[in-house]
Amino acid sequence: MEGSGLNSIGDSVYVYVGNYQEEVRIRIKKLKEGAEGRMEQDGNKWISLTMEQWESLCLVKEEVSKQIELVTGRDAVTKRAWRLSPNRFVSVDRIRSTFINAFVTLINIRIYFMGGTDLPDNPTRYGITLKPEQ
After folding, report:
1. Contact in structure between 82 and 64 (CB atoms under 8 Å)
2. Distance between CA atoms of 124 and 6, rounded to whole angstroms?
3. How far is it, in rounded angstroms, from Cα 120 to Cα 76?
């Protein structure tokens, strides 16, 4: 895959543009430093978007930002999702973390199994979770 350089959006998460099977793709990946000091992929923490899906994400950016502002600081579990393609969604999730015993706001860009529903209820392992500042 040929492409642009890595652009950091914080916390070892990078965005880059490349070609895959003669199609332009935008990839968002979590990378870690490998044994030889080279950056390598951190498990399944990535998502690849077509230009159409990327443009859909850009169109809902303001709504996502408003939802982040709306839920941040609340002590309640909430979720709102936007469809990027038939099986890819971006969502703002306000969850209770048992690890830190507090509510956190996260942005998920993820592929879903779509059973008989239009709602993103069955996430696959393919996707990435971002913090609001990313």
Report:
1. yes
2. 25
3. 20
User: What are the Cα distances from residue 81, in Å, to 16, 23, 47, 105, 110?
Assistant: 24, 26, 16, 13, 10
Total domains present in the chain: 2
CA distance 12 to 8: 7
pLDDT 10s digits, 8-25: 898 899 999 988 888 999
Within this chain, do residues 106 and 123 fall inside the same structural domain, yes or no?
yes
Whole domain around residue 98: which residue ranges? 59-130
Q: Model's pTM, two decimal places? A: 0.82
> Are 83 and 116 contained in the same domain?
yes
Which pLDDT tens digit goes with each residue over 94-126? 999 888 889 999 999 998 876 666 666 677 788
